[in-house]
Every structure is written in structure tokens, then in C-alpha cells.
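Hey team,

Sharing the DUF202 domain-containing protein run so nobody has to redo it. Sequence (126 residues) first:
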Amino acid sequence: MALRSQMVENRGSTARDFCMLERNLLSHTKLALLLSLLSSSVLLRARLVPEDDPNPMSGTTGTVVASLQFAAALAAIVAGVWEYYCGYWDIRNMHAFLVAVKPHLAIISVVAAVVFLTCIIVLSEH
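Structure output:
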């Protein structure tokens, strides 16, 4: 059975809401890319400004921090896709979606906690 696309009538703010969903998904993807880049730089011990100290972060701490950041990157992608599809189906079924879905808020809160924890660990290591 072939899937048929269903046209949604552009009434009110439907097009603007759909663009908002796409923009949010792209923002989550950008956050995930930045977190994975930061994870890679911690694993490779790359620095923007070279210092005399050859080992700024210990190997175990760096691996743990990099793993947390990569897990947070994956969680950001999952949260973005979750929010996109929930909003998409709300648009298709003509439901209001002013309130964000609760799992999205929980996942993004964990991602924010990982970013804050990373800042604390990096500042305490130096």
C-alpha cells in the first residue's frame, strides 16, 4: 500500500508553525554537532590556544566528559526529532501545540546539565 501525502490547508499560522518546527529541528541538530565536536576535541586534547602543560585534562576525566557530551549530542537529536514529529502530527490533526511536550523538556534539561557539568569540570581542571 503506497503512502499518499495529505495536503494541510494553510489556514491561520500553519505555514509559520511548520517553519518553526523545522527551525527547531535544525537548532537541535546544530547543538548536537557542536556537542559532538566538543566531545572530539576533548578526546583529542585539542586546544585553541596552546599551553605549556601537555596534559591539561587527565585521560580518564577526558574520556568521561567526552562520553557525556556525545551522549548529550545524541539526546539532543532524539529530543529534536521527538518535538518535530509531535508538532507535525498536531499540525496534521489541527491540534494546538503551544505547550511543549514533557519528554522534550526533560531531555533538553539533561543536555543543559551536561553542558554545565562540562564547564565546571574544565574550569576545575585548570
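The chain is about 70% helix and 0% strand.

Ping me if you want the raw files.
A.
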